[in-house]
Each structure stands twice: as structure tokens, then as C-alpha cells.
Design goal:
The chain is α+β, with helices and mostly antiparallel strands. It has 2 helices and 7 strands, in the order ααβββββββ. Strands 5-4-3-6-7 form a 5-stranded antiparallel sheet, with no helix packed on it. A two-stranded antiparallel ribbon has the order 1-2. Strand 3 and strand 4 form a beta hairpin. The longest helix has 27 residues.
Length: 151
Amino acid sequence: MGRSQETFNKKEVRNKKEKKRKEKELKRAKKKIEGKKSSFDEMIAYVDEFGKITSIPPDPGKKTVIAAESIELNITKNRPESTPSFVRRGIVTFFDESKGYGFIRDLESHQSVFVHVNNLLEPVKENNVVIFEKGKGPKGPSAMKVKLFKE
């Protein structure tokens, strides 16, 4: 049986594929005839002093020599004044004694921090200035070891 079931669209697709295959074959033959092989030197890329990729090698006259002894390799030491303080100050913005929770506004970051009655060392009321440690609670930041701030 011939191609009796072949539609016009199927013929077009088959012809396009055949044409593409022939074009590819011609390109391959042309490349073979030219015999141009790429050398390793043509494939090398250089990076200039500005970080851009170029095909031009760097100028040896612009090269700067750095003595290995001048390079410092050391670890920066933690200074107590640069480390963040874990004890924070804040103002109690809301506290419900019957439910046993409230919120403290951190004076440094102005972030609202949740506080539970179990984390109180002293009883607190609204607008009290307190000191606390910031910790991670189940739903976000939580205040731990909360007590009144005495100047």
C-alpha cells in the first residue's frame, strides 16, 4: 500500500524535514571541504583589569607585583563593643493578665515582641519599661526572662 492516507499537512511536514536534513548535509560537506579547524589559541578568552572577557591577552607591562609577605591573613577578633547585646530594653504596649500574654515594643528595633506570663520574672503592666532576652517562639520572636528595668 502506498501513502493513500497521507494528508497535505503530513506531506508538508515530511518535505520540511527532508529539506532540513539536506541543508544540514550541505553544511557538513562545506565544512569538510574548507578543512578549517579551530585552534586552541582561538578558543582562549582573557579577563581584563575591569573584569570583562576579551580575546586580547593582557599587557605584561601593566602587571603589578605583590610581595607574598605583604598579604595579611588573620581572623578578626570579636570585640565586646561590636557584638550585639542579647539583653534588650522595651516598653510593654499591651498585657492581658487574665489571658497571660502581651507584647513588648523593642526600643532599638521598634519591633513588637510577644511575651507570655511564663517568661516573666516580675509582674508587669502596660507602659512599664522592661529588660528581656529575645528568643524564638513557635510563631515568631518571643521575649524571655522579662523583668522591670531599674535605672
